[in-house]
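Thread: quick sanity check before group meeting

JM: Hey all, I'm pulling together slides for Thursday and realized we never actually wrote out the predicted structure for the chain we discussed last week. Dropping the sequence here so it's in one place. If anyone has concerns about the input, flag it before I start.
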Amino acid sequence: MNEPLRIKWKKRLAPIHLLGHAVLLGFGLVLLYPLVFMVLSGFFNKTEFMQTILGVFPTPKEPTLANYKSLILGSKDAAVTTYLANSVIRTAYNTIWALLTSFLAGYVFARLKFKGKDQLFLVLLATQMIPGTLAIIPTYLEFARFPFAGGNDVFTGGTGILNTWWVYLIGGPAINIMGTFLVKQSLEKVPIELDEAAIMDGAGTMRIIFGILLPLQLPIMAFIAITTALGTWNDFVTPFFYTTSDGLQTLPAAITRISSVGASPGAVINYPMIITLSLGITLPALLIFFFFQKYIVQGLANTGIKG
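JM (edit): ok, ran it. Output follows.
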């Protein structure tokens, strides 16, 4: 064994190095335990689950795949395929909308000059300081009083756009403030001479925006896409407060509605299915973060071009 390789293995097998790995492994197992518990609980039926004293690693006497089949195919207890489709459609829509508005708004604030630009940008940033819970009631009233919708004559008389797909289509953020901020900061570090050179070569505005500047922002756009997708996928507030139809539910809100079945006397809440549906929400988010975490770091670190 040559000397550099011997030194390398000596460092790897050093007690402090092994201790560090052991500590990290221990923390990793602790963090993964809830996921393991969810997977094992999904093999119970609701009756056995309620009658069993669960251990650290719950094991059913009569394992069943019914809950996992419900997660994929749906069941009479829950229209899981509808919930899943709604979650996917809404996540895709919000992600695409966030990418478009963030880049265009960032371009406007970074490249265009108009009166009050800085003040307007500060107002947008200030809205980030308002807790989202404070907007629930005003948003509900806005949807309920939406003009000429849901039986409203102008602002009253009906239900507005509550319990419709319009809640998802226009109820998402009009502009991604964090994404706009990152794009603006990044574009301000791109030399304006790049735009001027493109104009000299005959490039139009659209060519400069989408053909030259947009490719430079791909790490940031990936960051915006990932964070928006995760936030929308896990969103519980919008479907729970502004919709009532079962056909409009997404997975997070549907789980709460399924658990409310136990409110009737004598009813047994199907906890194994609820846990399995929760697993269906958790796994996509974990996979997205695991495979694309480097883009999250790059999106925050790369705020321009270097050279």
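AS: nice. DSSP finds 15 helices and no strands in the chain. The longest helix spans residues 80-111.
JM: adding both to the slides.
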